[in-house]
Design a protein that fits this description.
It is found in: Cytoplasm. There is one protein chain. This protein is an alpha/beta fold. The protein has one domain (2-192, 224-270): 3-Layer(aba) Sandwich (Stationary-phase Survival Protein Sure Homolog, Chain: A), CATH 3.40.1210. The protein has six helices and 13 strands. It has helices spanning 14-24, 73-81, 111-121, 149-160, 228-233, 252-257; strands spanning 2-6, 30-36, 55-59, 65-69, 92-99, 126-131, 172-177, 185-187, 193-194, 200-204, 210-213, 220-221, 237-242. β10 and β11 (210-213) form a beta hairpin. The longest helix is centred in the middle third of the chain and has 12 residues, at 149-160.
Amino acid sequence: MRVLLTNDDGIEAEGLHVLRRALRALPGVQVVTIAPDGNRSAIGRGITTRRPLVVERIDFDDGDHGFATDGTPVDCVRLASLGLVEGFTADLVVAGINHGSNLGDDITYSGTVAAAMEGVVLGLPAIAVSQQSDAREMDFRLGDAFDFTVAARFVARVVEELEEIPLPPATLLNVNVPAGEPSGVEVARLGKRIYRDELREHDLDDHGRRRYWIYGTDPTYHDEPGTDLSAVAAGRITVTPLHLDLTQHDGIGPLSMHDLSRLLAPASRDV
């Protein structure tokens, strides 16, 4: 199996390398690492279209190597799919291990999940994996200590048994690992985040322009059984199947019954 490994924390991130070593230890698995040259957290599905991408080979301490780019996590997946590494065509995209959880509504901002989504766009199975810090935060504010051992071991086992796992087509697995020793694994739906952001003036920049904070004011969540947020809070690894079909299918029928074609006519004809 040929695995493309990427992340949004950057080519030097500890989580990336713990997972890289765990995947490389699997028999019959080839790992190619392409990651941003620095932190691209919360960039979502951003791509680079208006300039060329810089790509540099990076040699790792264990004799392996990878490639760093000044692009985004999605760019990394595209670079691989378009032939950056001669003779390599990925069978699986793995993104992570992210420094911090990606739970509930937060996944729409996550560069880690976005990279896995790009795998799905390209017709590949994909896994996004994130690790809660030792501070056991339940939002995007991070502690300063992480243990990636359990997450790397778990994902390596998932990769090893991927052909036996009932994964529907065009689906990625979003994996979140709590701090400490997990009490189990729960297949869970996305939970609901409660954002309590506020506009706070920070200061003036060197040109006299005002600067503001607008994110990060104590977000919390709905504690609902069966959700990823509640399961991680209870100390369980969560696995959530995600797909890219954002269509609200129940809305197609009622909306089709509404005569939207009449809106093509000038408004004055309806008066």
